[in-house]
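Example record

One chain of 459 residues, shown exactly as stored in the release files.
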Amino acid sequence: MREQDPKKRITNFDEVPCGYSEKEAVQEALRCLQCKNAPCVAGCPAEVAIPEFIAAIREKRPDDAISIIHRTNNLPAVCGRVCPQEDQCEKACVLIKTGNPINIGGLERFAADSAQKSTPKPTARPHEADKKKKVAVIGSGPAGLTCAADLALLGYHVTIFEGLHEVGGVLVYGIPEFRLPKSIVAEEVDLIRTLGVEVKLNYVIGKTRSFQDLRKDGFEAFFIATGAGLPYFLGVDGESLNGVYSANEFLTRVNLMKAYKFPEYDTPVNVGKNVAVIGGGNVAIDSARCALRLGAGKVRVVYRRTEREMPARIDEVHHGKEEGIEFCLLTSPVSMRGDDNGHINKMVCRKNRLGDPDSSGRRRPVPVDGSDFELEIDTVVIAIGNGPNPLLLQTVSGLELNKRGNIKADENGQTSVKDIFAGGDIVTGSATVIAAMGAGKQAARAIDVYLKKGATSGK
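Predicted structure tokens for this chain:
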């Protein structure tokens, strides 16, 4: 797929991949072997009928293609951009044996973008059902949006309660504009609203209203999809110095609060000339690429393992390298130092070697004695993962949590409280958008069973 030139794109927040033209999409779709057993479908948490929608594209029927996708996926324009297809559907593609699997994500994006340009826009219709049954979805990220849309299609009256002032959760506060334009998210959300889903913003369940209040309002089931919004820190000296951000704060300022358009928008973000981002996931790469676009002279990603162990998408690491980001691998921060004004100016790091695998299956970083060195740094972004925000969870009586503070739920999203289901990062910890969507789909089915039969596993 065509992309913005690296030298140009580091000066803007415009989308990096340009998307397929119809001719390019048809050419790519013609490569599909239309396998009868469709192994790619088994690799898709959203259960998209991949060969079927690709066949529609090759026959120049993009409206049919998006209708096919919409049977199971209500966020195709999002998935086409940020889903890790290389580890899921494309990994299962038969053509991976040739080293060149079908670009399923690119074709899904083409179908979704074509539909957004068409008038009227194709959309699914809710089933005829008893709209009196009310379900509350807490959180409007990918899990919440998916669950809400699927329940609406099943005929339920669904209300999403979102604590922030915009819909989308991590899609709007976490993922940068150059990877996922916010106008795309808004279009997807608008289509979900057409299914009859109601959205209430600036609404913090547990503070604005309690679960017991909502039960009195007639809600018969709940889906908690509040994500993992509590940042983890390193626990090293100097972490509270000025100039040290959590990735949550940094990316929320940049994305949701539009700091990259300051002073047109009111929220600033201070990015110095020498930036270090700690971590190796997509959030770390996103933070580093944002810092570069905000004017940093040198941006380093400091990661304690090697590139092979980095959880970030291969494409994002590749884009970061193209843009000039430096990767300091097998390196861990051990302390931070500041100037007389309390602002960070140095970071002390230590080199690692890889030892035996740990619980994640990756080789454990082992510090190398006597390898400490200093980096001159004036901004640090810590992107080493997130945990569940306890604000909501502390208000729900009887809800069982695991040792990390995540909600315990079975494979259907059923929790220890019979009318409460949960899914996405609030259950698994930080994971992918598509995994959260899969959890939302599964929970919607389970809630349907619960409301129809009054019982699910775990009741």
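Notes: The longest strand covers residues 344-357.
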